[in-house]
């Protein structure tokens, strides 16, 4: 059982089957699992992507910095939404951003984040790294390392890392364990290379697992054998 974890959800996880916007049912399933984990004493922080609204690199005609600023704002909308759904089921939450967003969020600081976590509050790290040309994978790696998490949990729409795309190749083989360096060497598109490099340099393990499997978040945090563990 881990004592402090960072859970990374893609924006699409919030959108469910619609692929855009929010799906409350999906967020409630996550909230229910996080509540059970908090009750067992694990501290939880969460990073959510923005792909259910916007991706900076997809908007070819716009200045990339501006496009990425919109992407970062999308992650803040997602975090405020999920935070409210969590509060609705009795979980204490706070949303922190790397830059001030008026009265809507707290500005990130390690001390304040860790103090919230120790209080049993779920901290949503929104707004990514606060800089363009990065992703929320990298934001998740950075915040997880900064706040001394035991492990980063990347919940995906696939149940682990495969040697080829299982939706195309029925013979695709799932890895139980890979090295961080394999992500770079073999071009495995599981987490972005900047995030993998940060984790590798700072000995931060990552578990990649399927969000849609029953109780997968609880099982991941309890250290059960699911998904693919990325070792450094
Ligand atoms: N983004 C950014 N800096 C960050 C994190 C995110 O500029 O540190 C922006 C970027 O435009 C990205 C969007 O926010 O496309 C959504 O983040 P996510 O990681 O979900 O993007 P994806 O990897 O899916 O494009």
Number of strands: 11
Instruction: Give the fraction of residues assigned to helices.
Output: 25-40%
- In order across it, which strands form the biggest sheet? 4-3-5-2-1-6-10-11-9
* SSE pattern: EHHEHEEHEHEEEEHHEHE
Shape: globular
The end-to-end span amounts to 20 Å
Give the overall average pLDDT. Answer: 94
Identify low-pLDDT runs: none
CATH topology: Carbamate kinase
The largest sheet, given as strand count, sense and whether it forms a barrel, is:
9 strands, mixed
Number of domains: 1
Please write the CATH class name: Alpha Beta
Give structural attributes:
232 residues, Carbamate kinase, 38% helix, globular, alpha/beta
Structural overview:
The chain has eight helices and eleven strands. The chain is α/β, with parallel strands linked by helices and 232 residues long. The protein has one domain: 3-Layer(aba) Sandwich (Carbamate kinase), CATH 3.40.1160.10. The strands form two sheets. It has a nine-stranded mixed β-sheet, sandwiched between helices. Strands 7-8 form a two-stranded antiparallel ribbon. The mean pLDDT is 94. The chain binds uridine-5'-diphosphate (UDP). Uridine-5'-diphosphate binds next to α3 and α5.
Secondary structure topology:
Elements: E1 4-9, H1 11-15, H2 24-39, E2 43-48, H3 64-88, E3 93-97, E4 106-107, H4 110-118, E5 122-125, H5 136-146, E6 151-156, E7 161-162, E8 174-175, E9 177-179, H6 180-185, H7 193-201, E10 206-210, H8 216-221, E11 228-231
Helix pairs in contact: 5-7
